[in-house]
Amino acid sequence: xxxxxxDPISSPLQPAPAVQSCTRNLxxxxxxxxxxxxxxxxxxxxxxxxxxxxxxxxxxxxLRRAVRDVSDKVLIQQLKELEADGLVKRTDYKEVPxxxxxxxxxxxxxxxxxxxxxCSWGTEHVAxxxxxxxxxxxxxxxxxxxxx
Amino acid sequence: xxxxxxDPISSPLQPAPAVQSCTRNLxxxxxxxxxxxxxxxxxxxxxxxxxxxxxxxxxxxxLRRAVRDVSDKVLIQQLKELEADGLVKRTDYKEVPxxxxxxxxxxxxxxxxxxxxxCSWGTEHVAxxxxxxxxxxxxxxxxxxxxx
DNA sequence: TTGGGCACTTACCAAAAGGTGCATACTTGT
DNA sequence: ACAAGTATGCACCTTTTGGTAAGTGCCCAA
Lengths: 148, 148
Prior knowledge:
Two copies of one chain form a homodimer. Chain A is of the alpha+beta class. The first copy, chain A, has a single domain (24-139), classed as Arc Repressor Mutant, subunit A (Orthogonal Bundle), CATH 1.10.10. Chain A is built from six helices and five strands; from the N terminus they run ββααβααββαα. Chain A has helices at residues 32-40, 45-55, 60-66, 72-84, 106-124, 126-139, and strands spanning 24-26, 29-31, 58-59, 88-92, 100-104. In chain A, the strands form two sheets. Chain A has a three-stranded antiparallel sheet. The first copy, chain A, has a two-stranded antiparallel ribbon with strand order 1-2. In chain A, strand 1 and strand 2 form a beta hairpin. The N and C termini of chain A lie far apart (48 Å). The interface between A and B is large, with 68 and 69 residues. Chain B binds a DNA duplex through residues 42-43, 59-61, 64, 70-74, 76-77, 92, 95-100.
């Protein structure tokens, strides 16, 4: 597949999509992005993948502390889903006290790599993002904004 | 407390993180990815951004049809949030019958570009993803799996 | 003996997110 | 006249998601 945006015949007047056109209508999904989203849906999954990608095999406790503000129940739950989806691998060392660690499968690894640009984007635009959230916090406290 | 799998000098046996280390502990976020996720949290937001990036300014109705299965209420809602967050621009042509279109701001455009790898990932791995979902559908119909 | 850490599990709950359906004001097509 | 399309708003409700708090079995340190 050639990656150049030169379109021989169509109108040169359009805003020139900087994003390559994605295969729409995959079997069951509206597009590739849709498919991906189904897998990483879950408040902490992208973070989990990303941390595992950076830190390599990580024990449960460490992960728990890395992903701040997550509860045991949810962390475990998301890890199980990620495992079921073939993105992470759980290793139980059958020791006592318990010792378990989580790592990425090749598939998980590839997904984590696809998350890199999102992470960079966030880092580059923390300013905008946190400002937006500061503003939201004002009216998102149990009340709609009184006047448009 | 020393975990012999994360020692600065010993153990050259690690999987060699293919993902660059991300700035952890940004002000308010655990990392850049965290920041990004706050902005695109919402079932349809990434899709919206992506479609706008590909199609350029898009009328409400078209968008509605592109993002299949979304309801008016939710679409509108997410568009408003994206607008409030400075990612999309709403243009009301003040015509009758109503004519409005949505487009990306530069910020939104940059985010959309960061979504490209996710879309590619999904496209490349539709097989795995849909298989996983097929399996999930089996036991995710109002009941836990009876026996391991 | 008490307390803590480990890696979970379970029951119970609150909140968020999303969906349905009806309404609007006006136009166009049949 | 009537249905349909346009871009929303609103009330209401269900589903999903996530959080809390407690408990488990085992070991080690104080």
